[in-house]
Amino acid sequence: IMQDTKKFFENLSGAGKSIGVLTSGGDAQGMNAAVRAVVRMGIYVGAKVYFIHEGYQGMVDGGDNIKEASWESVSSMLQVGGTVIGSARCKDFRTHEGRLRAALNLVQRGITNLCVIGGDGSLTGANLFREEWSGLLDELVQSGQISEEAAQTHSALHIVGMVGSIDNDFCGTDMTIGTDSALHRIIEVVDAIMTTAQSHQRTFVLEVMGRHCGYLALVSALACGADWVLIPEMPPKDGWEEQMCHKLSESRLRGSRLNIIIVAEGATDRHGNPISSNTVKDLVVRCLGFDTRVTILGHVQRGGTPSAFDRILASRMGVEAVLALLEASPGTPACVVSLCGNQAVRLPLMECVQMTQEVQKAMDEKRFEEAVKLRGRSFENNLNTYKLLSHRKIDAELPRSSFNVAVLNVGAPAAGMNAAVRSAVRVGITEGHTLFAVNDGFEGFSKGQIKEIKWGDVGGWTGQGGSLLGTKRTLPAKHIDKIAEQMRIHNINALLVIGGFEAYLGLLELQAARSKHAELCVPMVMVPATVSNNIPGSDLSIGADTALNAITDTCDRIKQSASGTKRRVFIIETMGGYCGYLATVGGLAAGADAAYIYEEPFDIRDLQSNVEHLTEKMKTSIQRGLVLRYDLALSHTALIHWIHNCSENYTTDFIYQLYSEEGKGVFDCRKNVLGHMQQCYYAYIFGHFALLVDFVQYHIFVCFVGRVFANTEDSACLLGMRRRALVFQPVIQLKDETDFVHRIPKEQWWLRLRPLMKILAKYKTSYDVSDSGQLEHIVRLRAKDISAI
């Protein structure tokens, strides 16, 4: 029955269709990954795909600017920043005559499907072109440049957009292509600056891009724990100069040796007066006398290789764009492929453009609170979180609470754990609670390694990898009596556990022991933090993104090492236990040819087929292969998830020897085991912990009758991301979703990405597109919501 409800893309044919792909406006990392996905998916379904070089200018000029793309023409493109097909500002396309020439060039090549990668200006231009299309064809017929038959054959122009912009300034999508990579560049610079700033006790003012949108400034300030941030959407109130200087001075008095201030290039005050980085510097020097320096990042933010997130986002969007074009009918409006939570969606292009324009209008009319809401939930949540975490209230302003909350890390270290602890501690203190840090997980808990942790104790934690609290894999069951005793001694009223599968098992054990120990009848929340991303109840875990970037960076270097040499295949092994997330998604980000994982059984025939497939590809102009095996095979890279967990017999060494033997005379083979370097990178992402503290407070106050007593199922929960939302789920209810033997969820969303990786590596496969095809509408602010602002 389930099979009948699914829709497979094999039913969609591109035969006889031609697709043009172009990049327009400012360049952004990840554009090449989107172009690659469009080209390969288009060719895969039987369509012709054309590069349109230099954006709309190439479309207007025609000639060699519009060339048919081949499968090999997008090889080695995935890891390259910018856009290899070029982008240009085009005045000609803004004129009717220019669009008429562009229409002629497209009709001559049979192109009636356009995939446009750019910002709101580029997408608006594409929609205007679509609306004028029939009129333009009529003019071409009347002038004798095309025949009536050609006009009828190409009567409809279909447009699908993908937003490529480092500013993340487009409404309707949580993230635009290039934003994550730009944030990586900023954080890399901040990390480098912090060391010199600490040495000389300096204040640094960093100016980042964002003429009309402060997303980069806001999120980078959040990620690095900046002392102050200035953005266009929320100008500081009058008197901000004194407030900022007071905060910087207070920070120094608490022992900090540096201050970081981040300024968006379009920052203004409430009266519309620009606030430049040099203005801020002069203010700090004049009022505080601090040694202050200015760093303007400029186009560094646009450069460099795309992050793993941007490569995956662009690849998913590129494939979705081709599906949208195949399904389009003459009446289908131009759409844009967007990201909502963890799901790709299609939205009407002009609805998104109009909402984006409304943001600027609200800012121009000084309706700043409305502008923030119009930016979307992601922007608003980030702004609220920054306010909570960066602006410490004086003790007299804090609400009073007699409740104690303990925080601990459990399981293997994961990048982002420290940022999560910092967030939880500061939000908890802001709500008036007393926070306690537990060292060394449940084992440290049983030994009484517990102490109060204050606001300043977590300063500078965001960028540090590993676990500063200390973490162990020890489960609580054998220490349950001592843990209960420590809960009583320190009067712990709530428990926050940040960790991996051991944290999940630990929460189950604590809940099971409530019948014997009343001290354990308190609200408990677990936040998933593991590079393996193997926790039931959550699509993503803290640390997994950083591990993916470590894998992607390593694969890029390994592939580059073979540049200029003979044809070569690399076998790479990643971490992951029995969970193939890192191998699969890392393979998609690195352009792997295969990824061998436990969840998808394989035998010697599959391996032989892969070797033969790779051999055929190597006989073309493609010269490197990548095979990932988890715990993973990946240039023609094969990613291998930890091979001993894929299969007892098909180990990394076995696959290496097979590829080496069968590839003789065509390619040679190398292997690499990535190991624990995947855990040790800095963290770039973390969770939204105001929601978590709200949950804890709710259960504390509901269950408070003289003392906290919470023993219901929903008082021991996991906070996870499910598709589009953060949700709390009782851990007891997640047991049925868990394969405890192999420590993985029974159903894993990312398995749907595996056919995508295979398609982009030229394997014939089946791809479920049941979630695709529905054009949604952008969620707009209702009138009562706006009036309540």
UniProtKB/TrEMBL annotation:
GO terms for cellular component: 6-phosphofructokinase complex; membrane. Residues 404-789 are annotated as: C-terminal regulatory PFK domain 2. SUPFAM superfamilies: Phosphofructokinase. This is ATP-dependent 6-phosphofructokinase. One of its GO terms (molecular function) is fructose-6-phosphate binding. Its cofactor is Mg(2+). It comes from Cyprinus carpio (Common carp). Mg(2+) binds at residue 120. Belongs to the phosphofructokinase type A (PFKA) family. ATP-dependent PFK group I subfamily. Eukaryotic two domain clade "E" sub-subfamily. Belongs to the phosphofructokinase type A (PFKA) family. ATP-dependent PFK group I subfamily. Eukaryotic two domain clade 'E' sub-subfamily. Allosterically activated by ADP, AMP, or fructose 2,6-bisphosphate, and allosterically inhibited by ATP or citrate. Its EC number is 2.7.1.11. Its main location: cytoplasm. The keyword Kinase applies. It is found in: Cytoplasm. Gene3D superfamilies: 3.40.50.450, Phosphofructokinase domain.
